[in-house]
Fold this sequence. Notes:
The chain is of the alpha/beta class. The protein has helices at residues 7-12, 27-31, 56-65, 83-94, 107-112, 141-146, 158-161, 201-210, 227-238, 249-253, and strands at residues 3-5, 19-23, 39-40, 73-77, 101-103, 151-154, 183-184, 218-222, 242-245. It has a 5-stranded parallel β-sheet. The chain is globular and about 50 Å long.
Amino acid sequence: MATFVSTDWVEERLEAAGLLVIDARSAMRYLQGHLKSAVSLPLRKVLDQQARLLPADQLSRVFGSVGLGGRQTPVLYDGHDGRNAAMLAWALEYLGRDDVHIMEVVFDRWKDQGREIFYRPVQPAARDFTARVDAGARACLADISGAPDLKLVDTRSREEFAGEIDAGETDADERPGHIPGAVNVVWQELAGEDGHLLCSEEKARRVLAAAGINRNDRIVAYCQVGVRAAVAYLAFKRLGYDVRLYDASYAEWEQSGLPVEK
């Protein structure tokens, strides 16, 4: 599970030899200001042209290219809504890393606190990244269709869940609706406020309880292509829930020929 750390914690360790600070925002945002020593790794680098996660060997090369090896502890930060860092954190967990850290507030909060900002890009020294894939972090189509006891949590908007509008992340849905039996928890309800990456644990518990999600449920979170659901994945993990991310998500399900509900 990822460890959330404060801005003070990050600032005190920015130049620590065993730490790699990773900026998950777009390359343009990175060039407009970033943390000292931070390397840029936009989310798009770990996804293919269809917004699907790259295979593990390619992911290893991507993370290694920005300087992450076996002796560096990754510390991620993000801007705006935190989706990029959430997805990168999950990808690292999927590759077997149990040392992932995430700054608990977004970049703008760091900036508002008057902390130091740098503008010159950091050129990373490539390292060898060894993947030890943790299949337990990821759900696939066969898992979803073959295990009726799973608690499916659709983190898209209420309109997408109901099949009333087209999805916003990809092309229009061919078969609007949701996976049969899923419950809807809109991902923004678990995202943070006032610059925080996630909402409070107390609020998250209320949101999940209202959706009928129990502590002993075996949860699979999904959205359209996985990115929004990654925020929910982090929120579930932080509370100690048994959760996997179905990163292929509804985009794959609607193309599978399996039933959908509205």
